[in-house]
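FAQ: What does the model actually see?

It sees only this:
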Amino acid sequence: MIQYFSMVMLSLTLVACSSQDRSTTSSSNVDNDKNGHRVDHDNTGRRANNDYSGRVDNDNTGKNVQDRDSAAITPLDQSESEADRTITQKIRKAVVADDSLSTNAKNIKIITINGVVVLRGPVADQQEMESVLRKISDVQGIVRVDNQLEILKK
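And it is asked to produce this:
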């Protein structure tokens, strides 16, 4: 019983020391400049090059608001049937394999339900949209394509 109690106390002590060590380490790499702004330092104590001023999010979080509409088709609606999953997989492979497509185009949403393919997301231009649509025309089993791709404004 005493050995068990000793082991528990030792474990708790080690955990407490470990968490105290982590908080000390992380706070030593951060301080404030003369204007009160956060300044990160790397492990050598030099100022880290983390310029967050004028930062713009490079994602499409704002566009994803439309996915909250209960009528909107999202990847969660993807059919579980073997045929529909195969269609989606073939399209995704063809899109990802094309090095001429932008990262946005490679990340479009592809959802297949009963042979109907829904495409959603941003593409760079009309040419890129047409390239994606040509890849789809090679896939067997597609009943219809619901093209909801959007061309990014430059």
